[in-house]
Amino acid sequence: MTAEDSEGNWVPAMLAIRDRQDRAAFADLFRHFAPRVKAFLIKSGMSPALAEECAQDVMATLWQKAHLFDPERASVATWVFTIARNRRIDALRRAKRPEPEDLPWGPEPEPDQADAFEMQQETDRLGKALAQLPEKQRALIERAYFGDLSHTEIAEETGLPLGTIKSRIRLALEKLRHHMS
Amino acid sequence: MTEGKTKMTIRHHVSDQLLMAYSAGQLPEAFGLVVATHLSMCDECRARAGAFDAVGGSMIERCGTIAMDDGSLDAVLARLSGAPEPRPEPRRRKGLFPTPLADVIGGDLDAVKWRPIGMGVRQAILPMAKDASARLLHIPAGQAVPDHGHRGMELTLVLQGAFRDESDRFGPGDLEIADEEMEHTPVAEAGADCICLAATDAPLRFNSLMPRLLQPIFRI
Ligand SMILES: [Zn+2]
After folding, report:
1. CATH number, domain at A88?
2. Domain that holds residue A69
């Protein structure tokens, strides 16, 4: 895994932060994700100065909340997205997004490597499928995620192939629920 | 239905449109509250929401890069004092309301400040951002809710009991999504009183029982 490998597996770096407070691993994650988060926030309508500040906050949150990352339910890129999205809502609307109840059982200390790898692969596959959508459709989805469409302007039929990734997350949730009982 | 471990059978779920808007961070707070409350009761939609978040993850990977300022990494490293925060104990629901709703109310059912709105129906307006409103409704078993149409979108999530309208039955965890065209008369089923969380991005128009003149008084 290197910073140049845009589809790299960042899970070991996240676990290194969580378990060993590994600053070198954090620096790798920062070099890869911070410029992407900044671009995402600018495309979402933020000034470059505010986007810089928020991207720094997002990366700091990545460190502070490392224990909440569950590689069986989300890729690192997905997790970075959720932190960036929430920071954007906070910065532009001065509001908090209502979040679902915590699962009764948090991420496992030793995530199943095969499951985590599969989740990463699924996210990569989804990204490729997204890139192959007809231009018009992809542009609409991008606009939605950049905060450019209201909830009524978003189409009910997204045409996104989300079935398999949903099934994987569903299995991970069942596993966590099973642990609890 | 017995309390505790009884598995709910949820038949009416969050639409793709709402889930994508929730994932993209584009829902008014009141709608976000309804979605977050449903997700708390429904692993199926929680997983679907995770899939929509993964679309956001792909956006992060593919939206290009803008260089961070000089010294940016060092500035963040300097902020990272010590270990990541320990994982907090998961917060669990203490009564009827899932935590996103309990957080807004500041407690469970016994903390709700109900106000009568006629025919035995009670409501409590929740403090929300102005772009949409949310309220709890308490409908006595067997009671009809005043016939009303909608100007915008209305979401109704059943927390306890059940109601029926012209189209279907809605039990605990079920979400009804009503749009502009819909005119309906929900009736609470016999048995338990029906408690719902409802949100709308437009004022309701009541066709009976609640003259429109009175609406400002009730703040709906
Ligand atoms: Zn559902």
Report:
1. 1.10.1740.10
2. 11-180
Nearest Cβ partner for B50 among A27, A33, A73: A73
- Above 70 in pLDDT, residue B159? yes
pTM of the entire predicted model: 0.91
> Is the confidence at residue B146, as pLDDT, over 70?
no
What pLDDT does A88 receive? 96
A138 in a structural domain? yes
**Total domains, chain A:** 1
Three-state SS sequence of chain B: CCCCCCCCCCCCCCCHHHHHHHHCCCCCHHHHHHHHHHHHHCHHHHHHHHHHHHHHHHHHHHCCCCCCCCCHHHHHHHHCCCCCCCCCCCCCCCCCCCHHHHHHHCCCHHHCCCEEEECCEEEEEECCCCCCEEEEEEECCCCECCCEECCCCEEEEEEECCEECCCCEECCCCEEEECCCCEECCEECCCCCEEEEEEECCCCEECCCCCHHHHHHHCC
Of B48, B61, B90, nearest to A106 by CB-CB distance is B90
Domains and CATH numbers, chain B: 2-218 (2.60.120.10)
Q: Is the ipTM here above 0.90? A: yes
- Residue A124 CA to ligand 1 center (angstroms) comes to 26
